[in-house]
TrEMBL record:
The keyword Lyase does not apply. It comes from Planobispora longispora. InterPro entries: PhoX, TAT_signal, WD40, WD40/YVTN_repeat-like_dom_sf. SUPFAM superfamilies: YWTD domain. Pfam families: PD40, PhoX. Keywords: Signal. Residues 1-19 form the signal peptide. This is Translocation protein TolB.
Length: 385
């Protein structure tokens, strides 16, 4: 095990293991040819979102919101970046850190906000600079942030959310239009989505778990949307001439890969072109569809989850909602941002104790393409854990 893994790896909680078992039980109960039972609409376990609060956020009873950062305004001693996108939280002594990408050209990168035990903001700082259109990414078990460039031949940067080490490109993870990443500590691989109309779903197998400098990039291969899959090695991850998604003839193509989240043997990912939430059952190497409908969830994008097994899926457009998908396949709106019709919700992530949810409206109320009106929020309440 790499030294960094020993330094900052946390153990798998009983809740996380139980959540995975719930989804696996659903898989076992599904009809042949499908991984999970059909989604259903029903009342939310939290109740419906109420009237918008002073911040324009409609929440169930018992939940409150606050704005923690605005693009171009000072937070914790620095100016918050434009177009906030993918994010994750990390433990930090008696507090925690929220890291957020910036999806702007050439000056993208990522920033971090350090919180104290009561949620007070202690400081903010850059953890990545000089990269390009940093969209989503993912948190590693050894507490680093993988920031992904959504450009032709984009890179994955491994960043230190604590600000002690310089960010490093991990070129062995492939040069393509990266979107999101999710680590699977059970199989010691990192899953990767690709934001192309004919993008692929990848996994990176590091030569040594905890060190992403070298390894093998593989692509998922399948002949249908549900059922068994195989993996084949991508011959040239650097892709100077032939894109990675076109190097393996048997590769399965997805319509605009977006968010990615791993929990208890299942990797969930979203595709915006067909408004689907997928599930890769890593234990049984089978592919399935968790959500495939037009309502209530529209414009699927970033995704995160809780130890209770609940998935939270953010909308790019739609009604500017974060929707909840429970392990028993209930799909229902959790929150809504009013007055931001030309924006998208990005970067949902829970604090380490599960009591606070962070996310952003990338383009804010003005909806400008440069993301100069971005807003980053915190929601506190009785989340199921």
């Amino acid at each position: 095990m790499h030294r960094r893994t020993l330094l900052r790896t946390g153990g798998v909680t009983a809740g996380a293991a139980f959540a995975g078992s719930l989804w696996q039980e659903a898989a076992c109960a599904a009809a042949p040819g499908s991984v999970y039972a059909a989604p259903r609409r029903a009342a939310s376990p939290y109740g419906p979102p109420g009237a918008p609060d002073a911040n324009g956020v409609a929440l169930p009873a018992g939940f409150t919101s606050r704005i923690v950062a605005r693009t171009g305004r000072r937070v914790g001693g620095m100016l918050w970046h434009a177009a906030p996108d993918g994010g994750a939280c990390f433990p930090d002594g008696d507090g925690w850190i929220y890291v957020s990408n910036s999806e702007i050209p050439l000056l993208g990168g990522a920033s971090a906000i350090r919180f104290g035990p009561g949620g007070e903001i202690r400081e903010a700082y850059r953890v990545l600079s000089g990269s390009n259109l940093n969209c989503a990414g993912g948190r590693t078990p050894w507490n680093t942030w993988l920031s992904c460039e959504e450009i032709l031949r984009g890179r994955v940067f491994e960043c230190d959310p604590y600000g002690a080490r310089a960010a490093m490109p991990r070129l062995a993870m492939g040069r393509f239009k990266h979107e999101a990443a999710a680590c699977d500590p059970d199989r010691e691989v990192v899953y990767l989505t690709e934001d192309e109309t004919d993008g692929c779903f990848y996994r990176f197998r590091p030569a040594e778990w905890g060190d992403l400098t070298a390894g093998r990039l593989e692509v998922l291969c399948a002949t249908s949307d549900t059922g068994p899959v195989t993996w084949q090695r991508v011959p040239n991850p650097a892709a100077p001439l032939i894109p990675t998604r076109h190097q393996v003839g048997a590769a399965k193509h997805f319509s605009g890969g977006e968010g990615c989240h791993y929990d208890g043997g299942v990797c969930f990912f979203t595709t915006k072109g067909d408004n689907r939430v997928w599930a890769y059952d890593a234990e049984n190497e089978r592919l399935g569809i968790v959500y495939d409908a037009d309502s209530p969830l529209t414009g699927v994008d970033n995704i995160t989850g809780t130890p209770a097994g609940d998935l939270y899926v953010a909308e790019d457009g739609g009604n500017m909602e974060i929707n909840l998908i429970t392990p028993d396949r209930l799909v229902t709106p959790f929150l809504r941002i009013d007055g931001h019709p030309e924006s998208e919700i990005t970067g949902p992530a829970f604090s380490p104790d599960g009591t606070r949810l962070y996310f952003s409206s990338q383009r804010g109320a003005r909806g400008d393409a440069a993301g100069t009106a971005g807003v980053t929020y915190e929601v506190t309440g009785p989340f199921r854990r």
